[in-house]
Amino acid sequence: SIPRRLRKLAPDVVIELAHFGPFRLPKNIIRITVVHDLTPVLYPQFHDRLSVVMHRLLLPKIIENADFIWTNSNTTKSAIAKDYPITQNQIVVVYPSIVPPSSHGSSTMPLPHHPYFLAVGTLEPRKNLEVVLKAFERYCIKHVDHSTQLILAGGRGWKDEAFRIALKNSSVREQIIIMGRVDRSTLWDLYRGAMALVSASHAEGFGLPCLEAMSLQLPLLLADIPIYREVAGSAALYFPPDDAEALARHFHVIISDHTQTSELREQGQQQYWRLNAFDPDWPIFE
Predict the structure, then answer these.
(1) Quick one: three-class SS letters along 213-257?
(2) CA distances from 28 to 59, 62, 64, 138, 285 (A)
């Protein structure tokens, strides 16, 4: 029904935001698809079977039919160009921007009173939350810390059974808060109150929470993957994605080294403004 309606409207350009576009259109309509990431194709073990099958079947034809592809990072651009070399000159990188909540908004959930680290995102295996959990356990045990909390903000996803078992059996379960999906005002208040944002993701298309955190000068503890190097630059402490001990040491740095924490805050804001000032190489439509 969408292609039929679009043909009736006869637009000059159609932009499809989720790379499953209504592209059965006349050739005179310029077709743009937005690709956020290729993780269902590159990392099928982290996705449900239907998503993997749909991407493998449909994505090649969608990319072939697009006049231009907009993507959210050079990392994603490289992944697309590697698998689909013909798209090299069709891809435009457009970094996301963020929209803070209304100044009139307020949290709809009670916020924690103790110091806390924050992880933001859907509870799914790609987010590698078991490593975050192990690192937090090691930090708390080694430093005999019973007050610091780990807060996870994000809805429940898929294939999260292993994480749920690890959480249930955790020695610091009482210090871990699962908030579920939160509204924007609550999320912003969580950013403002946290000591650092932590992400151990195996793969991301961009990592929007990093941008949101940097805009609020929140230090970052990030898995050392290419996209996070692109987004955060020097404004983060990095660790190998499967190294819980390294992340535990970073927890200690954030709490004990105020000089380095202040530097991370400053570098984060500077990196945010650099990304915000990025000017895409927009195509000229003839």
Answers:
(1) HHHCCCCEEEECCHHHHHHHCCCEEEECCCCHHHHHHHHHHHHHC
(2) 22, 17, 16, 60, 12
Cα 47 → chain centroid: 15
Which residue bears the tokens 């006869």? 10
- The angle formed by the CA atoms of residues 164, 254 and 152, to the nearest 5 degrees, is 25
Which residues on neighbouring strands pair with residue 150, listed in sequence order?
117, 176
Distance CA 91, CA 32 (A): 10
CB-facing half-sphere around the CA of 208: CA atoms within 13 A: 13
For the segment 44-103, what is each residue's pLDDT rounded down to a tens digit?
A: 998 888 889 988 888 888 888 889 999 999 999 999 998 888 887 889 999 998 888 876
| CA-wise closest residue to 70 among 32, 118, 26 | 32
Instruction: Pick the closest to residue 200 from 248, 155, 168 (CA basis).
Output: 248
Give the model's confidence band at 107: pLDDT under 50 very low, under 70 low, under 90 confident, else very high. Answer: low
* Secondary structure letter of residue 12 according to DSSP: S
Report, as an integer, the average pLDDT of 261-268.
96
* 175-186: average pLDDT: 92
Neighbours of 167 (CB within 10 A): 17
Distance CA 14, CA 31 (A): 5
111 pLDDT exceeds 90?
no
Residue 154 backbone class (left: φ over 0; alpha: ψ -120 to 50; beta: rest):
left
Distances (CA, A) of 24 to 29, 38, 53: 10, 22, 21
Beta bridge partners of 153: 120, 180
Can you read off the two tokens belonging to residue 82? 């590697």
Residue type, 125: P
Average pLDDT score over residue span 15-21 = 81
